[in-house]
Amino acid sequence: MNNPTASPSPIVQLAADDLQTPPLSLRQLTWRRFRRHKMALFGLAMLFVLVAYSYGGMLLVSEEYANHNDTKLRIKPPSNEHLFGTDTVGRDILARTIYGGQISIVIGLTAALLEVLMGVTIGALAGYYGGFLDSLMMRFTEAILNIPQIFLLIVMAKFFGGNLPNVTLMGREYSGSLLVIIAIIGLTSWPYLARIVRSQFLSIKENDFILAARATGTPTWQIIFYHILPNSIAPIVVAATLGVANAITLEAYISFLGLGVKPPTATWGNMLEGAYGYIDQGAYWLWLFPGLLILLTVLSVNFLGDGLRDALDPRSRTV
Q1: Which residues contact 63 (CB under 8 A, 6 or more apart)?
Q2: Would you write out the chain's pLDDT as a tens digit for each of its 319 residues?
């Protein structure tokens, strides 16, 4: 017979405690979703390697060596002395890709930052306030969209690129055309993001928690920055990552046409421009290595953007 005064089994009590698992935080849930995206993890790892290559390589190779000309070594294939070969004036391509990568990455990041700042600001104001302000800003956005970005980039780079003096920053000399490229890419890429942010604000501002915040007298700026904007972060992050890849690709495109960043500043794009006339001469190393670095960077950023989109989507049920 069972003893009615016996204490409960400790094994049963432990099993009941084990069922009370703490809920996942937003950061833990985002990371769990992100790590399921294998290509996003590959993109993140590859970007880390590329950044380490571009910025860590400067500890081993000086910029003076990267810009050093030796016509006796022009167009030499890869060897033990020059792992990536030499270019048309005898400069080491490995060293050039290291310092060129720094500029290409800076162009991508700063142009994307400018795009996000303008796109989020205009889209948020238009979506939240609506009415006349919304109509005015959207007409302006559509006017910018109707201007071909490549055409404007080529014209402005041709007009301003050669007229600006070189600038010295932190002991390094940069071509003045670098600022023109960053400004034009950033100032012509924001309309797509502005329309996305506007649609998010139009939808979210009608939710009950926003109406409750208004009813309790919450200031407008707190509603925008603390309530609506965090719920719109997923498309903004995706647009920012894709903006980095788009800026690097655009810079390479116009540099290939000879209208991009001018020497002495090296980029992966203007290295391709210097290799154009030697493609049919078998000098594959002139275009292979900078082109491969551009390809890996753009693919990695796109993979990372896809993973962040899935991880940050609040409607995703994948855990």
Answers
A1: 99, 172
A2: 455 555 454 444 444 444 455 666 667 777 888 888 889 999 999 999 999 999 998 888 888 888 888 888 888 888 888 889 888 888 899 999 998 898 888 889 999 999 999 999 999 999 999 889 999 999 999 988 888 878 877 787 777 766 666 666 656 666 667 888 888 888 888 998 999 999 989 888 888 888 888 888 888 888 888 888 888 888 888 888 888 888 888 888 887 777 777 766 788 888 888 787 777 777 888 888 999 999 999 999 989 988 888 887 655 555 5
**What is each CA distance from 318 to 23, 169, 240, 311, 314, in whole angstroms?**
15, 46, 23, 9, 10
Q: Which residues pair with 92 in a beta bridge?
A: 86
Q: Compute CA distances 255 → 129, 177, 277, whole Å.
A: 41, 11, 14
- 21 DSSP assignment: P
CB 213 within 8 A of CB 223: yes
Least Cα distance to 87 among 277, 260, 253 occurs for 277
The CATH architecture to which 32-62+91-312 belongs is Orthogonal Bundle (1.10)
Domain spans of the chain, in order of start: 32-62+91-312
3-class state of residue 174 by DSSP: strand
User: How far is 156 from 153, CA to CA, in rounded Å?
Assistant: 5
For helices 93-129 and 285-312, what crossing angle results, to 10°? Answer: 30
C-alpha to C-alpha distance for 292 and 120, rounded to whole angstroms: 33
Q: How far is CA 101 from CA 98, 106, 255, 308, in A?
A: 5, 8, 14, 24
CA separation for the pair 179, 29 (Å, rounded): 39
* Residues found in the chain: 319
Task: For residue 15, give both structure tokens.
Answer: 């099993």
pTM recorded for the entire structure: 0.81
Q: At 172, which helix (H) or strand (E)? A: strand 172-174
Considering only CA atoms, give the Rg of the chain: 26
